[in-house]
Amino acid sequence: MLTPILPLYITSLGASKLELGLIIATLPATSIIARLPFSTLSNRIGRWPIVVLAQALQLLAYLFLSVAPATAWLYPIFMIYGLAVSSFGPGAIAIALDSSPVGRKGMVMGRFYASIGIAMIIGPLLTSLLTFYFVFSSVFLFASALPATGLAAFVWFGGFPLLKKLSLMDVKASGYSSSILSSLKRVLSQRNILLLSSSSVTFFIALGAFETMFPVYAKEDSGLRSFQVSLLFAARGIPNSLSRIPAGNLSDRVGRRVPLIFSYALTSVALLLVSMVGNVYLLLFLVGLYGLAWGARTAPSAALYSDNVLPEDTGLVSTLIWLTSDIAMALGSGLAGAMAVMLPTQLILRTASVLVLAGLLGILLIKEAHSRKNN
User: Are 322 and 200 in contact (CB under 8 A)?
Assistant: First the structure.
């Protein structure tokens, strides 16, 4: 819900484009610091307590956003939001990966990420409707009902036993790893993981730059209103969601590299063309292509990470998936804000397009036979 309007809301409070980049970067920067501590805590007390804590922090952040009087308040609020993001993602992915049968991780990850893709459709559509009638602060209040509903559902369906009981995989991980450093050493010794992480950094730097600057670009240069910008993000979410399950299933059959090569190549092309057009219908189509490329990457990437580690390191590798995106999104947002002081948004998007091509090179260097030995 918030992705399309956060840059617009921040600039409406008087922030420059440079400050916009810094504020947006606060969220992933906080996540970078908090990911590994939350991963360690998850191995000790279980996945579910961390996931529930994340929803409580998200609720708090949304409520604070609705009453923030000035841009200075946004930095601590985005830190709280960053703690929510950093604690939820790895725990949720680890729960899904722990439940994946051998040889079907791509399929399970496709289904898991498809649920996120559906949210990327419904969220911007809701925001488009709400911003047509209400101011930004009211939208944040509406959004706060979502984590509140999640917490209520957890209580209603009797989730408290999950807070007290470690999963079997958590117990194995705790017994196997003498420390987080030894687990990191095992994971980072895998060539494929290093290559995929490097490629992921280029993908998410580009995404951070896009999500920071594109809403402002669409409003100022293309003359779109806030609800129309949200519709563009919904258009990105539809193919993003629809492509995740097929891409995950395809990666189980033909390997992880094929959908990943398609994803990185299409992302580069879409970003380049977005920077060249101003027609709203062409933008709609190109943003949809971007969503398709993003969705085709997600499940095969998570499955490839899992293919290359021991089951005991599933929790850590799920943290690594989110950590690389955090680092890159922070870099992308901050660099885009700094570049916007001197360069037009079109050139920033073209630079992001070239960067994704460098990530494609890393995907081409992955050794597929090794990555699928556990399937």
Answer: no
User: Which helix or strand (DSSP H or E) is residue 72 part of?
Assistant: none
What is the extent of the structural domain holding 48?
Answer: 6-371
* Angle of CA points 156, 159, 163, to nearest 5°: 145
Q: Tell me the per-residue pLDDT of 195-247, one tens digit each, with 9 for 90 and over.
A: 998 999 999 999 999 999 999 888 888 788 888 888 898 889 889 888 988 99
Tokens 């101011």 correspond to: 135
* Closest of 132, 145, 125, 149 to residue 1, by C-alpha: 125
Which of the 8 DSSP states describes residue 101? P
Q: Which value, to the nearest 10 degrees, does the dihedral of the CA atoms of residues 139, 339, 28, 217 take?
A: 20
Cβ-contact 82, 198 below 8 angstroms? no
Alpha-carbon separation of residue 41 from 3, 37, 75, 180, 340 (angstroms): 29, 6, 25, 11, 39
Q: Which of 289, 62, 367, 326 is nearest to 201 (CA)?
A: 326
Q: Read off the CATH number of the domain in which 57 is found.
A: 1.20.1250.20
What does the alpha-carbon distance between residue 20 and residue 104 come to, in Å, rounded to a whole number?
Answer: 41
Distance CA 140, CA 374 (A): 44
Whether 1 is covered by a domain: the verdict is: no
Number of other residues whose CB lies within 10 A of the CB of residue 336: 30
Task: Please name the amino acid found at residue 365.
Answer: L
Q: Measure the CA angle with vertex 28, ends 352 and 299; round to 5°.
A: 70
- 276 part of a folded domain: yes
What's the DSSP call for residue 71?
G
Prediction pTM value:
0.72
User: HSE of 342 in the Cβ direction (CA atoms, 13 Å)?
Assistant: 3
Per-residue pLDDT tens digits for 57-92: 999 999 999 999 889 999 999 999 999 988 887 777
The token pair that represents 210 in the structure block: 């896009």
Q: Look at residues 322, 301, 299 and name the one whose alpha carbon lies nearest to residue 36.
A: 322
Q: Which are the contacts of 65, defined by CB distance < 8 A and separation ≥ 6?
A: 9, 74, 77, 81, 137, 140
Which of 12, 18, 68 is CA-nearest to residue 229?
Answer: 12
Tokens representing 336 are 């885009």
- Domains held by the chain: number: 1
- Phi, psi (rounded to 5 degrees) for 164: -105, -15
